[in-house]
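Suppose a colleague, Dr. K., hands you the sequence of a protein chain of 924 amino acids and asks what its three-dimensional shape might be. Before reaching for any lab equipment, you can write down a predicted structure in token form. Begin with the sequence itself:
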Amino acid sequence: MDFDELEKNLDKLMSLDSIKVDPAATSIVNKICSSLNTERHFAFESESSQPTLTLNKAGYVIKASEATMRVMAFERENLTRINFLNLIHPDNKNVVIESLPTDSHPALVECPIKVHNEYKWFQIMFIHSSKEDNFRLLITDINEFKLLESDYQHQSDFISKVIEHIPVGIFCREPNGQFILWSQKCEEMFGYPADEVIKKKPSDIFSNETVKEITDSDDLLLLEHKKVESTITLGDDETSRTIRIIKTPFLEDGQPIMFIGICEDISQKLELEKNNELLIIEKEEQRVRKELENIISRSDMMIYNLSLTPEPHITYISPNSKKLTGYSSAEFIEDPYLLLCSLDSKVDKYLKNLTHDSCPLRIGKEYPYLKQDGNTIWLRNDATLEIKDGHQQLIGSCINITETKEMEAEKNTAIDATRIKSEFLAHMSHEIRTPINGVLGLNSLLLKTCLNEEQKYYVELIHKSASSLLEIINDILDISKIESGKLELEMREFNLHKFLNETLEIMEVQAKQKGLRFDIQLGLLPLRVVGDSKHLGQIIRNLVNNALKFTKEGYISIKADEVDSTFDQCVLEFEIKDSGIGIPKDKLDSIFNTFTQATDSISRQYGGSGLGLSICKKLIELMNGSITVKSNFQKGTSFIFQVSLGLSDRQMTTQIDLPINITESLLQQNPDEQHIEILIVEDNDINQLVLSGLLKKLGKNKITCANNGQIGLDKFKKGNFDLVFMDCQMPVMDGFAATRAIRQLDSPKKNTPIIAITANAMATALEECISAVMSEFFTKPIQEDQLKKVYQEFTSNKSAPTPKTTMPKITSDFEFDDTNLKALEDPQLVMQVINSYDSAMDQELEKLQGFLDSSDLENSKFVIHSIQGLAGNIGAVEVFKKAKDLSKTIKQSGFSDYTAELDVLISITESSKVVLKDFLDKNQ
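The predicted structure, expressed as tokens, is then:
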């Protein structure tokens, strides 16, 4: 059917005047248009994929679409014999028939239809065609939806039954406050039926007090999504009930869509608890009392309560009194003065004359006590004198301390014996040393006379034996001084490098004479230290001599390094390792004991008094250090010890001896007329400023600065620099990488002296400097004397300008070292440095906070390094220390526990800025 063509013709018909004036004709045309729309709709649906059917008035199928054949399982040959109404479930058939349309308006019906001997739910649109006098059906399969709906209804019914059987009330409220669930138990508790509560807010139903309890803390539920618990009392005094309410938000996609409340009547529970509370407490007191009495009876302690007024009498004494004193509880109660059966009359008098004025008073007395059997023991009586109900009483305990007293007596005897022995050994050592020194002196003179070979051999044996005897006597004297506490360290400044060279030089010769390899590995060590060089040398010689004595072949290795430092202290670690006979595992714990050697056979074969290691250990402990030993029997031994030494103000790091020389033309210039071009590669502006100022004092220097290694490398390639100062830790490219790049240039400039600057004074930093072929190395904070020495070494400038200006001193309780600021001499430059410090520190601390929060270890270490450099060069000693503490904390604990250290660093930094600002205000 061409619906469009028919519609056009109807439009033309409606436009005729004869139709317009004839009402009957107009009505007929409108009906035709209505039927046309129905036919068009039906035709469209039948051409679609939706199942469609055409039925006659009796309900038999006239026509079915292919989709219907599939869905309804119809067979084409039996199609016209099917009465569709008979396929409808009997319970729904009459409803469907009554719903069939009689005009052009469609009817929508849901009903179960038999398909393959089972009923499935379908939605059917019935459209009546008046022209054909039949029905057109549009069929939609809703079986799955109906099953889900049925299952949901079943679950809903089940949940409702469960809720009604739960012994607590349950209610649900929407975020706007309206109730959407109110269980039977809630009705019973509050007295309001569900139909009066649902879709209403608490304020619409309950009293103000009840509303407050139910709606209280709604903000916590909405905003913080927290569970809230409260109680409410309902009814009057006689019929009051206590209801506990627990509210929990029900979340969907992180937002609350309802509140679930649980109500429980806890009135009976509270009443039971109240009734049983005293009984429970009483039973617990009885249990504790019984347990305490059992404990006391099994212990050696006697507990008592002695009332002193009006007359002394014992109100309680523990059952174990007989075991301790021989007197029973009854005997003490009969005669309370048995408690004071002291052999010390002063104690008796003291206890018997206690007065009210003494209260409250703690008493602790130790005294000999005469037991019932006549034996004497020592008691310790600890008691408290107090007043109770107007009466003075003594509550205390007694314990037998006889064994302790005996041990103290033995200990004192042993101490006295040790002291007498030490004094005797010291006295005898001094007495013996005089004739031994005489023997050695005469023996030396005898060796210079004319002796034959046999005589010379005997005289040399005498000298060797006397020397060994003198060594033993010296060890005995040392150990005696140490044990008696009379050995004092001689603290003086000395050159550590020279000391180590001199100490190890003779031993290296002895090792080579035995055919042993003698390795010495020295890390980055301070040059000048403060300590007892004599006894430090004694420790090293003792340990190395042991290694020489017990090693027949292989090697002896000596390592020394700095493992920690502050502004005025350093901790040095030494390791003496050998490939000798080793120490048995079971002897390692006793190897440091006095007069102890690993085995008797070692003593017979190698000699020795067994005092050397004991002396070493005691000397190391006097130097605030420690010593450990590791050994593999028959394969070698390693002794590791640490000592703490002071740092001299005249500090200079170890010079690295590398084949890099300054140009000949520079060396030949007159020092006073030198124009030296210096490149400073340093990422910190303040450090650039300080270093530039110090260098300008040392000569007519042209200074160029670069903020990182890459910029420094680019400027070096373009310039003609005589000297480079290179910071080691920088962003983009660090100092090590920049130095390696310079050394690889195909130009004579690659041999330009490069001085490393860093806040890291550990051996690993020295190794990297050596690897990068740097010419010198020194640590921050930069010291003027140190810088002057390095500058003169590489420029042959032996004189520096005389200072012309004296800067005022920074005075504050805050620890400050203004050496560098004074060294700048130029007041304007000092002010510039201080002003830059404030903003630079803020930037570095802000960066550090970000890196710490994101657990970025590498960048955190880099920023802390920068903060140390800033603090060191400005002289903020405490800031430098706290930055170092934070670095240690991160290294040891990771990022789990840095907050406290960071807060301290920030606080100290703020204090340093206040001090500097005050200094500026006073001197501008």
